[in-house]
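Lab notes, practical 5.
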Amino acid sequence: MTNNNQLASICVYCGSSESGPAAHRELAAELGRLMADRGLALVYGGGRAGVMGAVADAVLLAGGKVTGVIPDFLMQREHGHKGVTSLEVVTSMHERKARMAELSDGFIVLPGGLGTLEELFEVVTWFQLGLHDKPIAVVNPDGYWDSLRDVLDTAVEAGYARTENANIAAFVDNATDALDKLAARATGLTP
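Output from the prediction step:
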């Protein structure tokens, strides 16, 4: 396990529903294995189901470290993953997101729903406002996030966003490209 860049831990935002396609859980497992192989710790929302559980389980199975951050109301419903390296229970969703960002050197977005979108837009906005300078990548398997890319392009065309801000998050096709893009951006090799 080697980590040859400035990244030590990656926050992964993704869905917690078991209803999504199995291919998305397989993508999460691939990302988890690659992260562990590269010596990258996972920071995530602390859940045990869906894409979220798949990425955590894969990192753990490959010998990596996993920190989950979960609000107490979700933990009380027994949605927390009790097998992770460290599980922090916080008081609110706001505290959860702030803590996950604090613990991470970069962000990867996998398929998910409204919560995943909200997390993505928050870290992109924080980057735009200069609150952090951590790289962000969106894994877009089989065009899952194509409509999101279209929304960003529409905002640029309408004058509500600048091109450089619409491109804060790099859209990539697979887990390897996501990790490579984060590493390159963290070392200043690519915008």
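Observations recorded by the TA: The helical segments are 22-37, 50-61, 72-76, 93-103, 114-128, 146-157, 163-166, 175-186. Residues 11-186 form a domain with the Rossmann fold fold (CATH 3.40.50.450).
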